[in-house]
TrEMBL record:
Residues 36-380 form the ATPase AAA-type core domain. This is ATPase AAA-type core domain-containing protein. Pfam families: AAA_21 (PF13304). One of its GO terms (molecular function) is ATP hydrolysis activity. It comes from Planktothrix serta PCC 8927.
């Protein structure tokens, strides 16, 4: 999958955004820049939440959180939220997300004084016009949406009161029927990932989660929090690269060892384990080598100190080493391939030399992915051609008053 183009007319800090990511550029890595507060993180989160969460009932809450208080133009029945052009390897699919005013208009009519004055004074508890008319109107609206090949994603609140749902989020993918559109979105959702620092303000979280992430705790406390772990289970494409999950490292090596054993049983040569150990993991570390106990239950690192090997533990690694290692493990453990990988401020904690090198790292670790990197790093951008670097240009929003 490859995101060719994203258009966002007006969402939070984003105004008339139109960015193209060329599919014939190599490497498929695109730094994304803007002024401070220019909307880099907002754009990545909008892309991720719409494309990763739109077909899962369990993830609907993240869409509602993201869109809470998004109140499109009241004078228009339909407002475009975002348009994506996706290349699936053989053709381009244009995905349009809309905010619809129709539900709001029906509710306004039902609650209007003029409408209520027409109701009989005595209203039976069953089958009365007050209940029947809205249901009939709703049915007509939904039938009209289906004729237009519009897929209903969810309802959300455009006001402070999240108990009231005023707007509907709908999606249209070319001429695909709603059924086929849902199938395509479901497959696409498995190919969209988002990585960020745990201290970021995640718009797809509710207030409770945001408070949890913004509290001044160390990273280990935050990552051990059951609420955050529960969140990551519900939204599997989401990753915070502020820590090294030792269990994932172990599992990666166990899987490699099992592949070798299975290959040997089939009479084939295999060196997954050695390749993982020597070529990949050790190349990430500086003057260090990863070391496992025979049963793979304990991980240590060997530091070459003037010809003498010194035992180190994961907590002895630098934050830059831990970050590079955690990103590598995340990509490999989740088998992230041919995917759209969105990464926010990947350069934080990395030495300027490593900010430059992270481009070649990503290309080496999985070249089939498209990486879009929201960044402030000049060194990172220098590793690519100027045409690779995309910028969200500041556009002033016209005062309507």
């Amino acid at each position: 999958m490859h995101l060719l183009r994203v258009q966002v007319p007006n969402f939070r800090a984003l105004n008339q955004v139109d960015i193209t990511f060329e599919k014939d550029f190599f490497p498929r890595i695109f730094p994304l820049g803007s002024q401070n507060g220019g909307g880099k993180s907002t754009l990545l989160q909008l892309i991720f939440t719409l494309l990763h969460c739109s077909t899962s009932a369990e993830r609907e809450i993240f869409l509602q959180n993201l869109l809470h208080r998004f109140n499109p133009n009241q004078s228009s029945e339909k407002t475009i939220l975002a348009i994506f052009d996706i290349w699936d390897g053989s053709k381009i699919h244009t995905i349009e997300f809309f905010a619809y005013q129709t539900i709001d208009a029906i509710n306004s009519k039902i609650n209007s004084k003029a409408y209520n004055e027409k109701l009989p004074i005595s209203i039976p508890s069953k089958n009365n016009s007050f209940i029947r008319l809205p249901l009939e109107a709703m049915s007509k609206v939904i039938d009209e949406w289906e004729r237009e090949n519009l897929l209903v994603i969810c309802n959300y609140s455009s006001t402070k009161n999240k108990l009231v749902e005023y707007k509907s989020l709908l999606c249209k993918i070319g001429n695909l029927s709603p059924h086929k559109a849902r199938i395509f979105l479901d497959e696409l959702s498995k190919k969209v990932f988002f990585a960020s620092h745990i201290t970021q303000d995640f718009l797809f979280m509710n207030g409770e989660y945001r408070k949890l992430f913004s509290e001044k705790k160390d990273d280990s406390e935050k990552n051990n929090c059951s609420n955050i772990n529960s969140l990551k289970t519900k939204i599997p494409g989401f990753f915070t690269y502020d820590f090294l999950a030792i269990d994932l490292v172990k599992q990666l090596f166990i899987d490699a060892r099992n592949k070798d054993r299975n290959a040997i049983k089939d009479g084939k040569e295999s060196n997954y384990y050695e390749a993982l150990l020597k070529q990949d993991i050790n190349s990430i570390l500086i003057n260090k080598k990863i070391n496992f106990s025979p049963d793979l239950n304990q991980i240590t690192f060997k530091l070459d100190k003037q010809g003498e090997e010194v035992d180190l533990y994961p907590e002895d690694l630098s934050r830059g080493e831990l970050k590079r290692l955690s990103i590598y493990i995340w990509l490999k453990h989740n088998d992230i391939k041919d995917a759209i990988v969105l990464m926010d401020e990947i350069e934080i904690t990395l030495h300027p030399d490593w900010q430059y090198q992270i481009i070649s790292d990503l290309e080496q670790w999985e070249p089939s992915n498209q990486y879009i990197l929201a960044t402030h790093s000049y060194d990172l951008c220098e590793a690519l051609t100027p045409a690779h670097v995309k910028v969200i240009k500041l556009k002033l929003i016209k005062n309507q008053n």
